[in-house]
Amino acid sequence: MIYAANFKMNHTRNSTADYMEKLAKRMSEKSGGDRVMVFPPATALDSYTGDFTIGAQNAYPAVSGAYTGETGVLQLEEFGIKTLLIGHSERREIMGESQEAVAEKFQFFCSEGFEIVYCIGEPLEVREQGEEAVTAYLLAQFEGIDTRYKKLTVAYEPIWAIGTGRSATVEEISRTHKMLKSHVKCALLYGGSVKPENIQEIAAVDGVDGVLVGGASLEVESFMALVTAGKV
Ligand code: 13P
């Protein structure tokens, strides 16, 4: 299992350092084959030591240059960061990133050899139209994406389940992951209101190779409850 923590715009540089120090001490509690990833906010990126991977939540597709307010490869490599989250629904919906922009980012960071956690997910109105509509919507989010890229992990996060406390049902996750697995061969994470109370049933679903967690990852205690309660 992969346990990925997405801090979003939470935590400061200080509180992230404190978190990483605590997390590093707890990594012996995870199962041998499991992997932990943490995506802190850009201002808290650093070379933290521990048995986990640090990734960036977003970056601009350039090494460096005149891109005010952005973070490029140069800034990430300073901390040895070679892992990137791309296409999170909050970037698509709130920051207005188009599929074209997301695909451009993907292609650039592939060419730079980055490991990519690529996010997809449908809004509620699409889910309400039924499974065919969901399939079409999700597959369209692979436009311009090389799903055979070796360092790719896909995260399925239904938008209506993010931060709402209402995770998708085991049945919904199972059907959607099965459909996605027939299109992509890489590891597939589920995200959306994953918490200590539902991790066991979600981790047990066939086709779930890990979880991408927002709210429940913000405290080490709660994130570790997920890491230690999931599938062995
Ligand atoms: P929550 O776990 O807070 O629902 O967030 C999920 C998410 O968007 C992780 O990327």
Write up this protein:
The chain has 232 residues and is of the alpha/beta class. The chain has one domain (2-229): TIM Barrel. It is 34% helix and 16% strand. The chain has 9 helices and 8 strands. It has helices at residues 13-26, 73-77, 89-93, 99-111, 124-127, 131-140, 170-181, 199-203, 220-229; strands spanning 2-6, 35-39, 53-54, 83-86, 115-120, 152-156, 187-191, 210-213. It has an 8-stranded parallel sheet, covered by helices on one side. α7 (170-181) links the parallel β6 (152-156) and β7. The chain is globular.
CATH class: Alpha Beta
Radius of gyration: 17 Å
Strand order of the largest sheet: 3-2-1-8-7-6-5-4
Structural class: alpha/beta
What fraction, in percent, of the residue positions are helical?
25-40%
Report on the biggest sheet.
8 strands, parallel
Number of domains: 1
CATH architecture: Alpha-Beta Barrel
Overall morphology: globular
Please provide the ordered H/E string of secondary-structure elements. Answer: EHEEHEHHEHHEHEHEH
CATH H-level superfamily? Aldolase class I
The count of DSSP E runs of length 2 or more, i.e. the number of strands, is 8
Calculate the terminal CA-CA distance, rounded to whole Å.
7 Å
Which residues form runs of ≥5 with pLDDT under 50? none
Mean of pLDDT: 97
Can you lay out the helices and strands and say which pair or pack?
Layout: E1 2-6, H1 13-26, E2 35-39, E3 53-54, H2 73-77, E4 83-86, H3 89-93, H4 99-111, E5 115-120, H5 124-127, H6 131-140, E6 152-156, H7 170-181, E7 187-191, H8 199-203, E8 210-213, H9 220-229
Parallel strand pairs: 1-2, 1-8, 2-3, 4-5, 5-6, 6-7, 7-8
